[in-house]
Here is the input.
Amino acid sequence: MDLPLLVGIFPQVFLDGLILGFMYALIALGYTMVYGVLEFINFAHSEIFIVGAFVGVEILLGMRAAGWLEALPWPLVLLLILVAGMAGAGLLAVSVERIAYRPLRGAPRLIPLISAIGVSFFLQDLIRLVESIWRNAFNLVYPTMDALNHRFELTETIDVSVKSLVVIAAALAMLWALHALVNRTKIGTAIRAVAEDQAAASLMGIDVNRIISLTFLIGGAMGGAAGVLFGVQYGLINPYSGFIPGLKAFTAAVLGGIGNIPGAMIGGVVLGLLEAFAASYLSLLTGGAFGAEYKDIFAFSVLILILIFRPKGLLGEIVRERA
Amino acid sequence: MSALFEARGITKRFGGLTALHAVDFALDAGIASIIGPNGAGKTTLFNVFTGLYRAEEGGVTFRGQPLLGLRPDQITALGICRTFQNIRLFGNMTAIENVLVGMHARVRLGLRDVLARGPRFHASEGALMARASALLERVGLLPQANEVARNLPYGDQRRLELARALASEPALLLLDEPTAGMTRGEAGALMGLLRALVADLGLAVVLIEHNMRVVMGVSDRVTVLDHGEKISEGAPHEVQADPRVIEAYLGTRHSGAPRRRLAER
Amino acid sequence: MIQAALATGLVGLSAWAVATFPRSVVVFLLFQGSLLFVYLARIPRWLRTALLALALLVLMPVLGHFNGYYLEIATQVGIFVALALGLNIVVGLAGLLDLGYVAFFAVGAYSWAIFGSPHANIMFGGGFPLAPGWFYAFLLVGLLLGAGTGVLLGLPVLRLRGDYLAIVTLGFGEVIRVLANNLDKPVNITNGPKGITPISRPPVPFDVPYAEAFYFLVLLIVVVVVLVNRRLEDSHVGRAWEAIREDELAAQAMGVPLVRSKLLAFGCGASFAGIMGVVFSAKQVFINPESFTFLESIGVLAMVILGGMGSIPGAVVGATVVTVLNLQVLKGFSLWLNELKNAGVVVLGYNLADLPTQLEPAKYERMIFGAILVLMMIFRPQGILPVRRRARELGTP
Here is the structure.
């Protein structure tokens, strides 16, 4: 075993894991907020996330075609696609709730879940259909921005790209904003009240349907932001590439304790780190017998183990008590 | 000789809240009632008895056998069955199918009998049907045997739940507010049925009730819970006269507004 | 009387039509529809049985002899009917949402693929493939492996609440697929994404052609599965499953052992998938992980939902409709569109030749499955052939 190598790549792996983890955390927020309020797994959230990425890439491609991509300063471009991705994904999440979930409220738990699975599949092919007609391609590549790809060499083995730093900064800002929104504003109080007890909240004059829509809007927007950052960071997207990250983000939400917003953030980061280390070290430690392909299995095993041994997650779940 | 059913020192906590504190309860035969204000811990006690909750302290024995740690279905198989405060029928199954599910613990068939569908299966299934029909007739629901449970009127659902509980051939029956939402006439008829069942089947019954007319009319013994503690026990008229019970229901002179009237609500 | 004549006539007419128009998808759908009509029509039981037997045992193989494509579709439909019936026990009766169902199908398929091909020589040195006759023993092996895997997965996860169970089974399905994709090292068990071939086909008596033989084998298994399903459903076992679906807590309080009943449901469903997996691998001669994706699990779920959860005829109809939709309608539409494109047909001033090349309607299975799931949940959650609660003959009290 090559100990210096194992130690040497550690910071790089840690950084990669952190980026992945913040991505998961942002997506996980959508799952956890909806679960907290409705006790329902929004299975289509992975597609809402990837729609954010597609909105971003479409704007970038459009700007490149118009020659604006080089003309405008990159932070402005980034801000623009981030906001657009959030808006697109947020609105999609709200419409999905309105069309496919709201009519099923009060039905047995599996009914809306099955509907959500249906929406997830439908959206995957819908994105494909739209992009096939519009661009005659559905595997799209994020146009690169030179400034973002600049790398700082910290040491001989470790370097950081600007975009990695941007992704981390954006994710942190997003998480902070959400935390402030939920804990320090009237809207946040209303969301927490609806999560606690829908009937009582509605007696207190809260419009429960509006709050639920708002929850989907916020969760969807966070997912959309994650989608844009995902595209910027990894470059290649297709209609189906939201599914596995979505599943892992759900794992992160459960890991942190479903319904628990700080839990989702911590769960995301923990899972991202675990996965990055598994991907890099598994092959080294087993002499190549098990490689990075097993990182998915690793994530699902975490999910299964957590659910069996600590179903309430690291920070404890926060969901409505049902009599 | 120990009692048919005996619980000692039952303590159950939910987080910081002590729902039951060192409650003793015993029953040999006849009908015992548990009363107390809302939130006194009556249903929690039932849930401990039937294995849905695990008590932190104390023990329950049935025919001398300890029950704590057994699963609800094992306890049912031993001969204790219950109904629920908010009716929990199998809504999309018919009345008679609900009763048949109640007999699950008494079916002596293996998977092989079910798949082979031989004479053993038909004999068993025939016997189940006959007994289920008899039970439905007993509670007056035979004409509705093939109706889907959720379409039955409220009073019928309560009686169906009773039939389903009886189907497991219990020696001890736990009824959680069986007359809730019934008219005075319906409640009276149900209690008449209950008395007949006790007499015919030698059944012991524990009743959670708010309806004092029912409690005082039917019970051999009454236990009063308040804030998770047993505050009184005895024959109905003794309990009725117990100052501690009156205090629990009406509130002390100093505490201001009366909490709940002792008479039926 | 009218219905009896109608049913007989419909079967005859549609069979004649299929023989006359060998390329028409619509006509084949008519033939399948006539079988459904026979099943649902108010006709004497003997006539129903006779018509169904005639259609499935005689007409279909004869038609298939002249048109192998239809026989292939009928066989595939049969495979999916068995899968749908297995999942129907788990989802429809016991109310456990299993999103990784295809994993059990994969376990069965790989069991025969490995030992019924030279691939096992890599692990055991020599002596493989097993003689084709072993196939019949492996039907049992597939069944046991499926059931065993089901119980093994079920033991830890069946205590979870329903929506978590769904996600865990989904994760398990993915784990099995990733394993199939990657277990070509350190020891080559599955041969990874390249898949395994050639897989032996079973010996067939009386020189029946393979296509027909597989059709009959699948039909036989489907009949057995339907029979087992009905017997389970109409017994204390099936009632316990339904009670769990309706109200888990009340079911347990009435004496139903939850974990054991759920394990039984899981095991039964999985065993049907396991046995069909063995048949599938022999029929295809070649398998790779592509056949065992999450998409397949959702496809089978869509069949159960479409037909009606808990309904046996529903599962049969659902499997037929969805398979035919995928194999015939989508592909047919794709071909038709291509023909129009190549011909340069102009519709409303738009030349179809300008259609994007990436637009392949045959690839939109997910959209179909998704639309089925959402629309059924919103408009008809009980399915197209909902469970009919049987009025029971009361015993004499």
